[in-house]
Design goal:
By secondary structure, the chain is α/β, with parallel strands linked by helices.
Length: about 300
C-alpha cells in the first residue's frame, strides 16, 4: 500500500514515525509493538491508525466506484473490435513498459485489439488501419518521415492519446509533433515528490470529466507550454516553489486537455510519471475515457 499517496493530506511528524515502522514491517504491528519502536504514546499511535484506516477505506471506496463505472459504461451495441497501436520506449525513468501494460489492460477491457511495439519504426507503417495511436516514448528522436506519417494519419481521423512525457516530451526536435499533440514539457519544479491538487474544470463541456471530482497526486507536477487551441479539462496550480519562475506568481497550468488535428481527436493527460500513478482511480479513469474519446 502506498501510504504516502493515501495519507498525504494529514501526516505530521508523529504520523510519519508510525508509517515508517509499518512500511518497514512485513506484517501489521500492534499498538504495543509500534510504541516500542517509536517511543510514542498509545493515544498518538491509535489516532494515527484510526486516520490511516479511514483514508484506506476511502481510497478503496473510490477505486471500487470507478471500477464499477468502467464496467457500466462499456459499449453494448458495437461488438466490432477497434484497433490500437501502443508504441513504447525511450527514457526508462518513465517506466514505458509498465505504463504500456496498464494501457493495454484498459484498452482490451474496452474491446480493442492492441498492437504493442518497442520501436519507432512502427510509425512508418500504414497507421490508418488503427483507430487509436498511443505513444509512450520520452526524449526520443523521430525521423521526419515518421513524424509526417503520424501527423497525416491523425489528420485523416486516427485518434491519438497519451500521457506525461510519453506524448508531450517525446520528441523535442519534432515541432510538427508538438503542434499536433498540443503542448511540450519544459519543467517539473520540485521533482517527483510534489503533492499537488488536480482541479477538474467543471465548466468544460466533456464526457471525459463527467462526475469526476478534484483529487490529489504526489508525483512530478508538469509545467507545459500549451497550444491556445486546446480544450482544457483539468488544471493544477504552481505555488511559489524555488526557481526563477516564482517571480511570475502562482500560475494555473493544464493537466488534461483535448484538441483536434484535421479529422482526428487528440487527448493528453500530464499525469503518468510511472504506472503507479494509475493506482489513483481518477487518473486511470481519465485515461480510459480519453482513449474512448480519441479513437475514431
Amino acid at each position: 500500500m502506498n501510504f504516502h499517496m493515501i495519507c498525504s493530506t494529514w501526516v505530521n511528524a508523529d504520523d510519519e514515525k508510525v508509517l515508517d515502522v509499518l512500511r518497514a514491517s512485513e506484517h501489521w504491528l500492534s499498538v504495543e509493538e509500534i510504541a516500542t519502536k517509536t517511543g510514542l504514546s498509545h493515544a498518538k499511535i491509535e489516532r494515527t491508525l484510526k486516520l490511516l484506516k479511514q483514508q484506506m477505506d476511502m481510497h478503496e471506496s473510490r477505486k471500487n466506484f470507478y471500477n464499477g463505472a468502467l464496467h457500466q459504461t462499456k459499449r453494448k451495441a458495437d461488438t466490432t473490435m477497434k484497433k490500437a497501436l501502443i508504441v513504447y520506449g525511450g527514457w526508462e525513468g518513465h517506466d514505458p513498459k509498465g505504463v504500456a501494460d496498464v494501457f493495454t489492460e484498459l484498452l482490451e477491457a474496452e474491446n480493442f485489439e492492441v498492437t504493442l511495439s518497442d520501436t519507432l519504426d512502427a510509425f512508418l507503417g500504414d497507421l490508418t488501419q488503427y483507430n487509436l495511436i498511443v505513444p509512450i516514448w520520452t526524449m526520443g528522436e523521430l525521423s521526419w518521415e515518421a513524424e509526417q506519417n503520424v501527423c497525416k494519419a491523425v489528420a485523416s481521423g486516427v485518434g491519438i492519446a497519451g500521457c506525461h512525457g510519453g506524448m508531450c516530451d517525446a520528441f523535442r526536435t519534432s515541432t510538427e509533433w508538438q503542434f499536433m499533440t498540443g503542448s511540450q514539457w519544459v519543467a517539473h519544479p520540485g521533482g517527483d515528490t510534489v503533492t499537488y491538487k488536480v482541479y477538474i474544470k467543471k465548466s468544460a463541456a466533456s464526457d471525459i470529466i463527467a462526475d469526476l471530482e478534484d483529487f490529489e497526486v504526489t508525483s512530478e507536477q508538469y509545467y507545459i507550454h500549451v497550444d491556445p487551441a486546446v480544450n482544457v479539462l483539468a488544471t493544477t496550480r504552481f505555488v511559489l516553489n524555488n526557481g526563477s519562475h516564482i517571480s511570475n506568481g502562482e500560475v494555473e497550468v493544464p493537466v488534461v486537455y483535448t484538441k483536434r488535428w484535421g479529422k482526428g481527436k487528440v487527448f493528453y493527460n500530464s499525469l503518468g510519471h510511472n504506472h503507479y500513478i494509475f493506482d489513483i482511480p481518477e487518473a486511470k479513469e481519465l485515461m480510459r475515457r480519453g482513449f474512448l474519446y480519441a479513437a475514431k
